[in-house]
Specification:
Helix content is 25%, strand content 42%. By secondary structure, it is an alpha+beta fold. The strands form two sheets. The protein has a six-stranded mixed beta sheet. Strands 4-3-7-10 form a four-stranded antiparallel beta sheet. A hairpin with a 2-residue loop joins strand 5 and strand 6. The mean pLDDT is 90.
Length: 167
């Protein structure tokens, strides 16, 4: 958990720094770490709150009103639906199902926590990520994967929405 905390701090710093600019950056960060003790992939995704809110409001014709007293009670169901439609993982060439653990708001960011149960250490991981690319042409989705002592990163976009990471 210490490693996840350090990753979270680093990503907060990056996105927090960008948040105080005139928000001309469109980024999400997906951090994936293989946890041998839990036989799982632990996934943290962070996105700008206003961007994900705009996308979901348009996609599903709702008004989420994030972080207000009028926030929709079933906001997690919209987050889950959006993620299922825009984020997929294949481990060792097999589509993997993930569990939505929850979400957290911090500053201008929304953190999503997901988990994928695995039997063995992944040899390959394919990530399909179209988060926010429908609504923001400049959207970049950074994927970082830590598999034991090995690390890989990829930058996905509207035109390149899949990455294959081999170990």
């Amino acid at each position: 958990y210490f490693i996840l905390l350090m990753k979270k701090i680093a990503s907060i710093f990056l996105l927090f720094t960008l948040a105080f600019t005139s928000h001309k950056y469109y980024l999400s960060l997906t951090q994936i770490e293989y946890n041998k003790n839990q036989d799982s992939l632990e996934i943290i995704i962070n996105v700008f709150m206003d961007d994900i809110e705009l996308a979901i409001n348009k996609e599903y014709d709702v008004d989420l009103r994030l972080t207000t007293k009028k926030e929709l009670e079933d906001v997690n169901s919209y987050f889950q639906k959006y993620l299922r439609e825009n984020l997929r993982f294949s481990i060792n060439n097999e589509l993997a199902d993930y569990t939505f653990i929850g979400k957290e708001y911090e500053g201008d960011l929304v953190y999503f926590y997901l988990e994928v149960k695995v039997k063995d250490r992944p040899i390959s991981l394919e990530v399909f990520n179209t988060i926010l690319t429908t609504y923001f042409d400049q959207q970049q989705n950074i994927v970082k994967f830590k598999n034991g002592s090995e690390r890989q990163s990829k930058i996905l976009s509207k035109n390149t929405n899949k990455a294959l990471l081999n170990f």
